[in-house]
Amino acid sequence: MAASAGSMILRGLRTGKTYNIDVYIPDAASTLLTFNPSGLSGTGSPTTYRTAEDCLIVDIATATAPTAVGGVFNINGNPVGGGAFRWATQLSTNPNRNLLAIPVRGGDFIGATQF
Question: Does residue 114 contact residue 71 with C-beta atoms inside 8 Å?
C-alpha cells in the first residue's frame, strides 16, 4: 500500500458547527497522522490539531487502508480510552463504518498514532 489521505470530522458542542480536517496517513505503523484544517495535509503538516471549542470527534475515514492496522487518538499527548480505530472499517466507501463520539475540550490538541 501507500500513504493515503483521509478526513477527521468534529462537531462543535456549543455551536453545532462541523469541522472537516484533512488527514495525511503515512504508510507505516508507529507513525503520527498529520492534520490540516485549510487544505490537503501532507508529511510537513502538524501532527496535532487544536480545537476551537468543545467538540466530539464523530468520524475518521480514508479512501484506502494503509499498511498500518489502525490507530489511537491522543488528546494532549495521552492515548484516549475508547479512541482506537481500525482502517479496514473506517474506509470512506463503507456506509457502516464505526462512527465515533470522542469528547475533546476547547483548546485541547488532538493527535493520532498508528499501530
Answer: yes
pLDDT tens-digit series, residues 58-95: 999 998 877 889 999 999 999 999 999 999 899 999 99
pTM for this structure? 0.91
The DSSP secondary-structure symbol of 95 reads T
Query: Which of 23, 13, 81 lies closest to 49 in space, CA to CA?
Result: 23
Listed in sequence order, the residues at least 6 apart from 43 whose beta carbon sits closer than 8 Å to its beta carbon are 24, 26, 34
**53-69 b/e with 16+ CB inside 10 Å = b?**
bebbbebbbbebbbebe
Q: 85 pairs with which residues across the strands?
A: 71
Give φ, ψ of 46 to 5 degrees. -60, 150
pLDDT in tens, 13-62: 999 999 999 999 998 889 999 999 887 888 889 999 999 999 999 999 99
- Residue keyed to cell 480536517: 21
